[in-house]
Automatic annotation (TrEMBL):
<dbReference type="GO" id="GO:0003677">
    <property type="term" value="F:DNA binding"/>
</dbReference>
<dbReference type="Pfam" id="PF00875">
    <property type="entry name" value="DNA_photolyase"/>
</dbReference>
<keyword id="KW-0157">Chromophore</keyword>
<feature type="site" description="Electron transfer via tryptophanyl radical">
    <location>
        <position position="471"/>
    </location>
</feature>
<keyword id="KW-0274">FAD</keyword>
<dbReference type="GO" id="GO:0071949">
    <property type="term" value="F:FAD binding"/>
</dbReference>
<dbReference type="InterPro" id="IPR036134">
    <property type="entry name" value="Crypto/Photolyase_FAD-like_sf"/>
</dbReference>
<feature type="site" description="Electron transfer via tryptophanyl radical">
    <location>
        <position position="494"/>
    </location>
</feature>
<feature type="binding site">
    <location>
        <begin position="387"/>
        <end position="394"/>
    </location>
    <ligand>
        <name>FAD</name>
    </ligand>
</feature>
<comment type="function">
    <text>May have a photoreceptor function.</text>
</comment>
<feature type="binding site">
    <location>
        <begin position="484"/>
        <end position="486"/>
    </location>
    <ligand>
        <name>FAD</name>
    </ligand>
</feature>
<feature type="binding site">
    <location>
        <begin position="347"/>
        <end position="351"/>
    </location>
    <ligand>
        <name>FAD</name>
    </ligand>
</feature>
<feature type="domain" description="Photolyase/cryptochrome alpha/beta">
    <location>
        <begin position="86"/>
        <end position="219"/>
    </location>
</feature>
<feature type="binding site">
    <location>
        <position position="334"/>
    </location>
    <ligand>
        <name>FAD</name>
    </ligand>
</feature>
<keyword id="KW-0285">Flavoprotein</keyword>
<dbReference type="InterPro" id="IPR036155">
    <property type="entry name" value="Crypto/Photolyase_N_sf"/>
</dbReference>
<dbReference type="GO" id="GO:0003904">
    <property type="term" value="F:deoxyribodipyrimidine photo-lyase activity"/>
</dbReference>
Length: 521
């Protein structure tokens, strides 16, 4: 039976509307709680961690050294020729990195001056669509702040900077195009409805912007009559143009997709970066500041005494690869340990940086292949790529399914009775179900922003199968809390776990006593 892939985690509350398939081994709300693990801690699932573990576990000097080494490896040795003219804008979105960033490289090639921009869009800090939870929780807000700070610093080291503006991209980007006379705006393309609507609005507003005759001529020379907004695909390991089928014909079953792309497609190499990306336009009088927690609507976070503390940014991401692959040599046993729940090293923990775009999946692929050449190739090295193919699949699936991914019946329009019992949901949300395995996982999520892949499978199954709660409540709570939130993987996994996804074979149930026993073994 297929496994639910969250990137890469009774007394039983029996809802009267729970599906019949979930009414297994369920007795009474007054059942005595089990005692296989303490629920008092706030760290890794099942307790046991006594201190905060930073991810990556490295000193700042070592992280900077690894960043420099990796940048050198992915930089062209010869002086790259720059043939462009005028100003181009790079609109950073969920691609907050320098390495293997095609929008950044294309913008550099097509211009004489490059202006990187990030818009602090207030909609990202509003509320979710159905249940009005915070769209971006405090932990992910802090991770974003760290990521932007790191991106700004890395761009400075390449001769640029990051212009940060508060406001909606459809307001900010056109005004900057007009001010600096930019001929083109480059950005990475997204796939889900909210992001696509922003792209549409930006493109529409750009059509109305008046630029100088010189800028217009430069744009037409480079791009003919194309739009000023150039959207580039760059978020997956397999490029969308290299798939052996149109996305509308994407297989409904992951295994069919994986076998098809592995046999018929190839993975493009990482883009080599020029030695310097500057200069920026000469007349930038205010680059703006990285937002504070208060400006994003959150209080400063009090550090917890247990669990993992992820550090945001490309520098941290590259350091984590180095730490996990090369220093600790954990890649060779990944397949054996990947379903663990305790500590920073049972899995790669790349997902927060992949979600923010601080890390390119193609760079991970190339580092895996380098490891295989220099050390060992085995099932574990392949399995990291196997998980990245899952990530690709959910992203392509979001194109095929469209908004059905966010609807109650899911892509298959399943007719099923769900309840929205707030009291029951809050017990699950706050880790107060009385089941230590569920409660420890939910507390880990709220205090660290992370949960293991297996933990996510279990708490999803408990919410939708045992409680009969509307799966969208769980999906939106994960949207609030997860450091590694992205709509494709999150909602793809929740529809899958709830049995409303595109795969008609999926009806997976996790027995909590069995999972607790396996975890304690």
């Amino acid at each position: 039976m297929a496994v639910i892939r969250f990137h890469l985690s009774l007394p039983v509350f029996l809802s009267p509307t729970a599906p019949k398939t979930a009414r297994r081994c369920l007795t009474t709300v007054a059942m005595k709680p089990t005692t296989m693990a303490s629920t008092s801690g706030t760290g890794d699932s099942g307790a046991g961690a006594a201190v905060v573990r930073r991810v990556p576990e490295m000193k700042a000097d070592d992280m900077e050294r690894i960043r420099e080494e990796t940048f050198r490896r992915y930089t062209v040795t010869a002086e790259a020729k720059r043939k462009g003219e005028g100003v181009a804008i790079i609109w950073f979105r969920n691609d907050l990195r320098v390495l293997d960033n095609e929008a950044l490289v294309e913008g550099w090639r097509s211009s004489a001056a490059l202006l990187p921009v990030y818009c602090v869009d207030p909609r990202l800090f509003g509320t979710t669509h159905w249940f009005r939870f915070a769209k971006t929780g405090a932990l992910r807000a802090r991770f974003l702040i760290e990521t932007l700070s790191d991106l700004k610093e890395n761009l400075r080291k390449q001769g640029l900077d990051l212009l940060i503006r508060n406001g909606k991209p459809e307001d900010v980007i056109p005004s900057l195009v007009e001010k600096f006379g930019a001929h083109t705006v480059y950005a990475h393309k997204e796939t889900c409805s909210e992001e696509l609507e922003v792209e549409r609005l930006v493109a529409k507003r750009l059509q109305k912007v008046s630029v100088s005759l010189q800028a217009a001529q430069q744009r037409n020379q480079k791009h003919g009559n194309s739009s000023k907004l150039q959207l580039i695909w760059g978020s997956t390991m397999y490029h969308i143009d290299d798939l052996p089928f149109d996305v509308s014909n994407l297989p409904d079953v992951y295994t069919q997709f994986r076998k098809s792309v592995e046999s018929k497609s190839s993975i493009r190499g990482c883009l080599k970066m020029p030695k310097a990306l500057g200069p920026p336009p000469p007349n930038v009088d205010d680059w703006g500041c990285v937002p504070s927690m208060d400006q994003l609507g959150h209080h400063e976070i009090e550090e917890v005494s247990k669990g993992m503390r992820f550090v945001g940014g490309e520098t941290a991401a590259l350091s984590r690869i180095n730490d996990y692959f090369w220093i600790k040599d954990l890649l060779r046993i990944y397949k054996v340990t990947r379903n663990g729940m305790l500590g920073p090293d049972y899995s790669t923990k790349f997902s927060p940086w992949l979600a923010s775009g601080s890390l390119s999946p193609r760079l991970i692929y190339e580092e895996v292949k380098r490891y295989e050449r220099q050390r060992e190739a085995n099932d574990s090295t392949y399995w990291v790529l196997f998980e990245l193919i899952w990530r690709d699949y959910f992203r392509f699936l979001s194109i095929k399914c469209g908004n059905s991914l966010f609807q109650l019946g899911g892509p298959r329009k399943v007719q099923q009775r769900w309840n929205q019992d707030t009291a029951l949901f809050e017990c699950w949300r706050d880790g107060r179900t009385g089941y230590p395995l569920i409660d420890a996982n939910m507390k880990e999520l709220s205090t660290t922003g992370f949960m293991s892949n297996r933990g996510r499978q279990i708490v999803c199954s408990f919410l939708v199968r045992d409680m009969g709660i509307d799966w969208r409540m769980g999906a939106e709570w994960f949207e609030t809390c997860l450091l590694d939130y992205d709509p494709c993987s999150n909602y793809g996994n929740w529809t899958y776990g709830a049995g409303v996804g595109n795969d008609p074979r999926e009806d997976r149930y996790f027995s909590i006593p069995k999972q607790a026993a396996d975890t304690s073994a």
